[in-house]
Each structure stands twice: as structure tokens, then as C-alpha cells.
Amino acid sequence: MLKKFNQPDIAKALSNLAWLGTERLVQIGVAILISGMLARYFGPDTFGKWQYANTLLLVIAPLTWVCGAEILVPLIVREHAAATLAVQLNASGAASGAASDTEHANSLGAILGSAFTLRFTVSLAALLLCWGVLYLGWLDPLVAAMLAGLAVTMIFREPFGVVSAWLQSQTHSKPALLISLSTAILKAGAVFILVRLMVKPAHFGWLWATEASLIAIILLLYFIWRNHGRLGWHIRPQLFKHLVSAGTVFWLGLICMYLFLKLDRLVLEHFVSYAELGRYSAAQQLNENWITLGLMLAQTLAPAFIYRIDNILVLRRNVIRLMALTAVVMVCGAIFLDLIAGFVIRHVFGPAFLDATGIFRWAVWLSVPAGIEAIGNLIVLKYQAKYVLLGKWLLALCIALLVDTWLIPRLAGYGALIGLACGYLSAAAVNIYYYRFRLLP
User: Fold this and answer.
1) Is 123 left (phi over 0), alpha (psi -120 to 50) or beta?
2) Left (φ > 0), alpha (ψ -120 to 50) or beta: where does 93 sit?
3) What single DSSP character describes residue 151?
4) Which residue, among 293, 280, 292, 414, has the nearest Cα to 349 in the 3D structure?
5) Which residues of 274-300 are buried (b: 16+ CB within 10 A; e: fewer)?
6) Is the dihedral of CA 191, 193, 197, 203 positive or negative?
7) Helices 8-60 and 141-150 sit at what angle, rounded to 10 degrees?
């Protein structure tokens, strides 16, 4: 066992996981703190509009994911492995080694440069499209004002996220996590100041845009520092076309996934008041921070335990163990959150949100199928099964839409939770089928 923990890949993954856990706990704490301050300051009705604006952003944001980490991280991992093998096989001396290092840097620069250009172009188009729709006046004026600032985050998060993908491919997410953690704490302080100054709710979206721009600048400066003082990004037309073609199906799949994740609030908005939507969204926001832990757990462990493993027996064993580990973590977390649900809702959001307690107690159990689905999804990503990914989330979206349409008018928020549960279970079933197809004889 000690020998296994001393293996470089496992040691790096465990260190990465420790930093991930720390960052996620701080992020959950900061998110709860910010949500509590905004809920008390805004009140249920305005807080419902704030949550609806965030939901619309998270529905629009997948438009910018045309070249996601699902494609970029495995591509960087394969390029690095090829460069390492070339150096090992090259016995010509230091000059050849230097040439191999230069070739690796050029290849990495082409990957990151091409991905950044594609992401930035699409993100800018999505931002302009969003602002154009807001100008038409189809939304509630306060929701539109909030969304106008929130939408600016799109041109910073995904394009500059290529640096995070590069770090993830090295199983070294610590720098990105530290940046995210630090800016989250600064944002909480800024929210406190804005609340004390009684700034209008319409202006809060621009604070999120400022945070995204700060993260982007620091990530870029960090990459330049690690790359010996130069950026070195450039576009390689053939690679750019490959990222467009390879990413399109994954892109559509991710759009379906996020539509599924936010469908509950989109449908609820047509059947309940903004105040009731605010209470439901408050419970779900807490729950989604917890579920994100399972998703980030999968993303952190993927390069070392899934993407780099070619032996079928080892890969099969790793998937089963990771699923079991995730299930145990999620069940224990769900039990704990279920027990303290009333305490959390009362002390974070205040008496006006007590009706959200029941929703939160049931919602935390969604983390179990969500976490298991995230681990099973790694096999789909490893083999770049883009049509499986698209079909899976399209199926989950359709099932959730049917359930929501039928149950939300009858059960309100509880009907929305049932829709999410049915969608997660259908997605996990597709993962299991693909697992049997690829890894079992």
C-alpha cells in the first residue's frame, strides 16, 4: 500500500485531491455566506429574480463550451505522453533533447492558442447575442439588468480556462484552485461592502464579471511565468479545424446537460411566484455546491486513474473503486446535510426561507446518482464517445422535461426534484451500458 502511495501519479492525484477538497469547502462556505447575505438583503422576491438571472446565464454559458476540457485535457495528455516517449527514444544527446522540448512547447502552444481563439470567438458572439436579446425587453427589467453584468463572465471564464485545462492535464490544479479560492473570499468581502452600502440589486452582476476578469488575468500571468516569460500561443489551422469538428458534438451534449440541470427552475418560473422560486433556488444552490464536489472529484482523478490507463483490467478496477468511493462520500454527505437542513436554512437565509428546508432535505440525495454518473462519464470521455455523450444528455433532458411538465403543476418544487432524479438515473444507465460495452468481455 505504501509503495502505491509513493507512485508519482497517485501521489500527485492525492495532493491534488487535498487541494480540491480544501478549495471546494471554502467555496461552499463562501457561496453559503454570499447567498445568505443576498437573500436577507434582497428578500424572497428579488432573490428569486437574482437566481433566475443566474439560471439563464447557466443556460446560455454552454454556448461557449465548443472546445471543453473533455476534449482539451485528453489532447494535452496525449501530446505530453508522445513528447516524453520521443525524448526517451531519442539517444542523440542534449541537442536532440532540446529540440524535443522546443517541439513540445510549440505543440502545446498550438493546442492552447487554437483552443483559446475558438473559445473567445464563440464567447464574444454569445455575449453579444445575450445583450441583443436583453435589449429587446422580453425579460423582467430587474432580471435583465442583473443578467447584463453576469453575462460578461462568459468572455473570461471559458477562453482563459485553457490554462486550468493545462494544469488539470498535469494533475496539478493547485494554482488554479488557489486563485479561485482567493478571489471567492475577496468577492464575499465585496458583497458585504455592497450590501452595507445598500447598492441596488441590479448592479451586483458586475461584481461577478470583475471576479471572472481577475481570475483570467492571474491565470494568464501564471502561465507566462511557468513558460519562461513568454506566452507562446499560436493558431494551427489544421488543429483549429479539428477542435471545431471534434468539439461540436461534445458541445451539443454539454448544452443538453446544462439545460437538464437548470430545467427545473426554467419550468418552475412558469408555475410559481418569484418568491417561491427564490426559496427553491436557495435550497438548490446549496445542494449544487455539494454536488459540484463529486464532479470536481471526477475531473481531478481522471488524468491519473482513467485517461492515462490503457490496461483494461486496471481501468475496470479503477472505475469500480472510484464509483464506490464517490458513492460512500456522497451518501455520508447527504446524511449529514439532511440532518442539519433546518439549521442551515434558518441561519443562512433567515426565517423568510424556512419553506425551503423540505426541498433541501430531499435535494441533497441527488448527489448520490450525480456523483456516480460523473465517474461513469469518465469512460465516455476517455474514448471520446461524443455521440454517446450527446445521446445520454438528450435522453436525460427529454425524460426530465416530461416529468417536470407532468409533476411540477401538481407538486411544485418536489416535482422538479423528481424530474432531476429521473434524468440522473437515465444518464447513469447509459454510462453503465457503455461501461459494459467497452470494458467487459
Assistant:
1) alpha
2) left
3) G
4) 280
5) bbbbbbbbbbbbbbbbbbbbbbbbbbb
6) negative
7) 150
- The per-residue pLDDT for range 270-311, each reduced to its tens digit, is 898 888 999 998 888 888 878 876 677 666 666 667 777 777
Cα 176 from Cα 404, distance rounded (Å): 37
262 by DSSP, 3-state: which?
A: helix
Using alpha carbons, select from 335, 204, 333, 348 the residue that is nearest to residue 283.
Answer: 348
Q: What letter does residue 303 receive in the DSSP assignment? A: I
Task: Please tell me which residue, 397 or 288, carries the higher pLDDT value.
Answer: 397
The maximal CA–CA distance of the chain, rounded, in angstroms, is 74
pLDDT of residue 378: 85
Q: Count other C-beta atoms under 10 Å from residue 405's C-beta.
A: 12
Beta-sheet strands, E only, within 111-255: none
Give the relative orientation of helices 386-411 and 413-439 as an angle to the nearest 10 degrees: 160
What single DSSP character describes residue 49? H
The tally of domains found in the chain comes to 1
The more confidently predicted of residues 98 and 347 is: 347
Indicate the helix (H) or strand (E) that contains 267: helix 237-268
Residue 204, SS3 per DSSP = coil
As to burial, measured by CB atoms within 10 angstroms (0-12 exposed, 13-18 middle, 19+ buried), residue 436 is exposed
Q: How many residues does the chain have?
A: 441
DSSP assigned state of 373: H
* CB contact at 8 A, 76 and 259: no
Write the DSSP assignment of 158-191 as a string of letters.
Answer: HHHTHHHHHHHHTT--HHHHHHHHHHHHHHHHHH
Which three three-digit cell numbers place residue 430? Answer: 447509459
**Domain that residue 225 falls in:** 2-439
Q: Identify the band that residue 322 occupies on the pLDDT scale cut at 50, 70 and 90.
A: confident
Answer for the pair 334, 368: CB distance below 8 angstroms, yes or no.
Answer: yes
Q: Name the pTM for this structure.
A: 0.77
pLDDT in tens, 77-123: 877 777 666 656 665 555 455 555 555 556 888 999 999 999 999 99
Residue with cell 505543440: 107
